[in-house]
Specification:
The protein has 369 residues and is of the alpha/beta class. It has 13 helices and 15 strands. It has two domains: 128 residues, Enolase-like, N-terminal domain (Enolase-like, domain 1); 221 residues, Enolase-like C-terminal domain (TIM Barrel). Helices cover 34% and strands 20% of the residues. The protein has a seven-stranded parallel beta sheet with strand order 7-8-9-10-11-12-13. It has a four-stranded antiparallel beta sheet with strand order 5-4-1-15. 2-succinylbenzoate binds next to loops.
Length: 369
């Protein structure tokens, strides 16, 4: 099968609330939305990039440029009957994984729809529901943090992650733990600490956390292995794991006890499934991270998280935790047991609201085979 047409859009869509981490603050989504067409079928993907290279090296400018000048033309040349082969089509291009992922997702969706199967099924998913939690940004005060967490618990979320940084780590964690002694709780520093901070991070061990996510450098595995020996709380790697090889290296070095899988960070679903399998064989649990995706990326996440070794709750909250109005007509809603239901219709299942997508589009590029 050959792709005949690719449409790339940069959108801007405000979040319900600003999202702040140790390194950046965002008021809304600046994702790239990908539409791919072949033989009368359409597939949708998303590159959850932003205005700056804060999480990884990509931005909406670089990702759109890579898609327009290199990746899109390569895809239009390729035979796309097997979505697992897209990574080989893109192999000559170094890094730029979010740019690759948005296109690869659209091909998976297109192929699943063409075969009339769900994306979950095509990926090897086994679950009908996936467990989810909520990622809580850095707040201006402990009072505001506790109020926010209370709101999410009232919504039905049963696992909370808080963003931390020096000066906003021990105190907020302690405050949440004091108020909710048995809550499933974890922290994420987004690469703000150094190995010399080990003694400081040891203070978090007293709060019975599920994991401590990516404390050290975005590209580090070596120092995380040293830190892991000094902490009781399992280290979870996010930023550092960008390929199956990185996962293998991290496991061999014992740099982490858990891996966060985000298919956009890894450059696509095929490599994400490989990382899932590597971890499963090693007895290491994985969970599905999030990049505050729109309804398109969210449906892709839910499909991937339906694979068996996703045994910890994902950062895949319901659409209304992110957007008052999303670009899909069938948003996910939270089930009573803190889960989202896995769609069983063809493709990833997100029904795109094309009129609203047009309204939030800032820039549009068309490529033809
Ligand atoms: O580090 O997990 C992260 C959002 C943007 C970039 C990086 C991260 C996050 C989150 C949000 O934690 C997770 C979500 O999508 O709800
Ligand atoms: Mg993270």
């Amino acid at each position: 099968m050959k792709i005949e047409r690719i449409e790339l859009r940069r959108i801007h869509m405000p979040y319900v609330r600003p999202f702040e981490t140790s390194g950046w603050r965002h008021e809304g989504s600046d994702a790239l939305i990908v539409r791919a067409e072949a033989d009368g079928a359409t597939g949708w993907g998303e590159s959850p990039v932003s205005d700056g290279p804060w999480y990884n090296e990509e931005t909406y400018h670089t990702a759109l440029l890579m898609q327009k000048e290199f990746l899109g033309p390569m895809l239009l040349e390729a035979d796309i009957s097997d979505p697992r082969a897209v990574r080989h089509t893109f192999k000559r291009v170094r890094a730029n994984r979010m740019a690759k992922a948005g296109l690869e997702f659209a091909v998976w969706d297109l192929c699943a729809r063409a075969q009339n199967v769900s994306l979950s099924k095509l990926l090897g998913g086994t679950r009908k529901e996936v467990s989810v939690g909520v990622s809580v940004p850095i707040k201006a005060s402990i009072e505001e943090l506790l109020e926010t967490v209370e709101g999410y618990l009232a919504d039905g979320y049963k696992r909370v992650k808080i963003k931390i940084k020096p000066g906003w780590d021990i105190t907020p964690t302690q405050a949440i733990r004091a108020r909710w002694p048995t809550l499933l709780l974890q922290v994420d520093g987004n690469s703000i600490y150094r190995l010399q901070d080990a003694a400081h991070l040891q203070q978090l061990d007293q709060f019975d956390l599920l994991l401590n996510e990516q404390p050290l450098e975005h590209d580090d595995i070596f120092d995380h292995a040293k830190l892991a020996k000094l902490l009781e709380t399992p280290i979870c790697l996010d930023e550092s794991i960008v390929s199956p090889d990185h996962a293998r290296w991290a496991l061999e070095l014992k740099a982490c006890g858990v891996i966060n899988i985000k298919p956009s960070r890894i450059g696509g679903l095929a490599d994400s499934v490989d990382i899932h399998d590597i971890c499963q064989a090693a007895g290491i649990p994985v969970w599905h991270g999030g990049m505050l995706e729109t309804g398109i990326g969210r449906a892709i996440s839910v499909a991937l998280a339906s694979l068996p070794n996703f045994t910890l709750p994902g950062d895949i909250s319901a659409n209304n935790r992110y957007f008052h109005r999303d670009i899909v007509t069938n948003p996910f809603t939270l089930n009573k047991n803190s889960t989202l239901s896995v769609p069983d219709g063809p493709g990833h299942g997100a029904q795109v609201d094309e009129a609203f997508l047009e309204e939030v589009t800032v820039e549009k590029v068309e490529l033809r085979g």
